[in-house]
Amino acid sequence: MLEVQKESNLLNEKFKSLSDNFILSDLISLYLYDKKKQQLVLKFSYDREEDKFQNINNGDAFLLMIEPKGCIGKVFLTKSAEIYNYITSDKDYFQSYDNELNHKLKSQLIYPIMEDNELLGMFRLSLTTNSKLKKYTLKEMAEVNVVTPYLVNFLKQIISNSDTEPVDDSIDDTPLLENEIMPAKEESVINDESLLLFLSNTVHDIRTPANSLYGFLELLEEQIEDRRLKVFVSNAKESASFINTLTDSILETAKNRYKAAHIEKEVISSIAFFSSIGNTFSAKMSGKKIDYFIFIDPSIPKEIKVDKFKLKRIIINLIGNAYKFTPVEHQIDFKVLWDKSNQKVMISVKDTGIGIEKEDQEKLFKSFSQVGKNRADKYGGSGLGLAISASYVSDMDSELKLKSKLDEGSEFYFDIPVEVVNSSTSYEAFHNLEKKILILTDYPEAKYPKFIEHYLVELGMSKEKIIISNTLEQNVTHVICFEEKITPSVLNGKKLKLYKLLLIENKLFSLLDKSEFKVTSKNIYNADALYSIVFSGKKLKVLIVDDNKLNLTLLESMLASEFLDIYTSLDGEEALMDLKKSAKKGDRFDIVYLDKHMNSMSGTQLLEQYRRFEAKYVLKPIYAVSITGDPHLSQNEHRLYDAIIAKPFNKHDVQEVISKFKMN
Fold first, then answer.
1. Distance CA 6, CA 281 (A)
2. φ and ψ at 150, to 5 degrees?
3. Which contacts qualify for 419-424: CB closer than 8 Å, 24 or more apart?
4. Which member of 107, 170, 359, 362 has the lowest number of beta carbons within 10 Å of its beta carbon?
């Protein structure tokens, strides 16, 4: 008993020592994750204002994670650390989870403590409105990262109930922490306080309308039923969110001398990531009547690991720059190619714009430099975009290069080494090549029909099986019809199931009245639409039902690399109606992810009713997956579901459902 008490006291002292390194934080909390009870149990806490340290052993202070809420719930689900510098106004903020004691909070840094991809607990730092520290930055995030091994040590010792090896007394925490953290603190000294104040105020002024814009877009998204419009609203939301990330980055650059503001590499779904960035510019390109071609190599691995923030900003800068300097009715190409032998992604943005004189080209990568006064006056801009992009590319062990001719256009290009996480190609090979595809257009020699043909070939079709014509030919299996050739006879052929049909509108949303048909647009990423219409295998139809928007967003992102039609619902009763309606139309769902705890109808009630509906109409049972996280599912509930996924969600478990379904 004395040994247990001694080890407990030792843990207390070590946590107090650890807290000293974060003394500018007003509140410090360390949670243990109890997987069996689905709880984050508070074990240590420190309140600077009261100078009060607590070791909480009775387990009474906990956050229930069956239905995670708040910002801490988001970190729990994503297993990704977050900084919230306007926490009480954040859309994910939930007081009873993020501010249980009702402090006057302004910022939080929430860090998941992981070992072997398993969540052990959570470390949370908080600032109040009276704090000496203005906000958390990536520097504080790095400091927490340094002490993570010590946090793991604490939690593992608690889990073992002090019955295993004692805490290693030989570890001298304080000198190590000071040696690691103090240099970072010294590097963050700001010489120009007035500049920092100006930047802080500017960032705040930009964030406020960006947050309002995001809120209005969320409301708009709820009212829209058209799936294509929803995609563009989603892209707009991401752009609004990215504004906040950018403004924070500006402040970080000033505070941390840029190099210190290192961002960890993240796993991305290749196609979803690059197509989302490309599609961000689709509306502007369409409005300016620019021929905009987005090509993403179908052989690119499904998932890769990159510095997501920097890569996104580089591409946005390059496409934005091309758009700015490309006249009306000209052309811009955004290409992402995969170099398998060198494990590199090759990216280029090429335009037929005004071009750059040879002697001016090297100036472009210098900060605040634009070529020629007339150019600056006419097109605007600070000249920072390309300099930042060149610097970011350099950070990724590459070089931003340029080819350009005056009055003919420019091409900016680079390649970066990446870590392959999922080596499967983004698009599975076509099973049936005995198809005859007609690209129907009034302009057979135009660039866009040729581009569609090239994409089909890259997706695996034989060029001999593709016809570009202005005449609706007989015995074709697939018709890709440009807007100018849409006639009743073309549409009737689809209705009579003579062929599969894809319509291509010349201007965004000019074919909204044809929503009963498969429609894509000239100025967006088209491979997904082309692949889904030509691919012989069935594109699985998936429904995710959860009244927590965060869960829906997270599961959608985890499934983004799979070839799926994903639908979501926040309401159990509406989801049940959608399932029944789709089944009656002969377009039933294959897989449903269901949360148990919902207001109007629980996931279990929904599934019980739908199972009775299936039995009545002799339907193949839907593959049902529980995402409730509730450890107390009954035996009957276990029988109802085909798979059960616990929270926090593990990406492998979520995706494995798709693999298991395909094997059945």
1. 62
2. -75, -35
3. 419/265, 419/304, 419/305, 419/306, 419/343, 420/301, 420/303, 420/304, 420/305, 420/343, 421/267, 421/301, 421/303, 421/304, 421/305, 422/301, 422/302, 422/303, 422/561, 423/301, 423/302, 424/301, 424/302
4. 170
Instruction: Tell me the per-residue pLDDT of 403-453, one tens digit each, with 9 for 90 and over.
Output: 999 889 999 999 999 999 999 899 887 776 789 999 999 999 999 999 999
Query: Are 545 and 530 members of one domain?
Result: no
Does 62 fall in a domain? yes
From residue 291, give the alpha-carbon distance in Å to each of 330, 335, 343, 376, 446: 6, 14, 31, 25, 11
Interatomic CA distance for residues 517 and 492, integer angstroms: 11
Residue 219 is predicted with a pLDDT of: 67
| pLDDT above 50 (res 173) | no
Q: Choose the most confident range, by mean pLDDT, from 86-95, 239-248, 416-425.
A: 416-425
Same domain, 294 and 418: yes
d(CA 664, CA 662): 6
Domain of residue 464: give its range.
Answer: 437-534
Determine the Cα–Cα distance for residues 404 and 412; give it in Å rounded to an integer.
9
- Dihedral of alpha carbons 602, 603, 609, 613, sign: positive
Nearest CA among 108, 113, 125 for reference residue 154: 113
Residue with tokens 């604490």: 154
* Rg of the Cα atoms in the chain: 28
Q: Strand 500-505 vs strand 478-482: parallel, antiparallel, or unpaired? A: parallel
Q: Which residues pair with 119 in a beta bridge?
A: 114
Segment 621-648 shows an average pLDDT of 86
Instruction: Check residue 464 and report its DSSP letter.
Output: G
Of the listed ranges 194-203, 279-288, 392-401, 539-548, the one predicted with least confidence: 194-203
Residue 149, preceding bond cis, omega within 30 degrees?
A: no
Residue at 78 is within a domain? yes
Q: Which domain-ending residue is among 368, 400, 425? A: 425
Instruction: Tell me the pairing of strands 62-64 and 39-47.
Output: antiparallel
Q: What is the C-alpha to C-alpha distance for residues 548 and 189, in angstroms, rounded to an integer?
A: 41
Same domain, 516 and 378: no
Whether 376 is in a domain gets the answer yes
Global pTM?
Answer: 0.66
DSSP string, 328-378: TT-EEEEEEEEETTTTEEEEEEEE-SS---GGGGGGGGSTT--S-HHHHHH
SS3 content of the chain, % helix, strand, coil (to 5): 45, 20, 35
How far is it, in rounded angstroms, from Cα 664 to Cα 416? 39
CA gap 95, 72 in Å, rounded: 11
Could you tell me if 324 and 387 lie in one domain?
Answer: yes
Mean pLDDT, residues 353-360: 85
On whether both 110 and 29 belong to a single domain, the answer is yes
| CATH code at position 112 | 3.30.450.40
Residues 14 and 160 in one domain: yes
The residue out of 383, 402, 425 marking a domain boundary is 425
Rounded distance between C-alpha atoms, residue 226 and residue 205, angstroms:
33
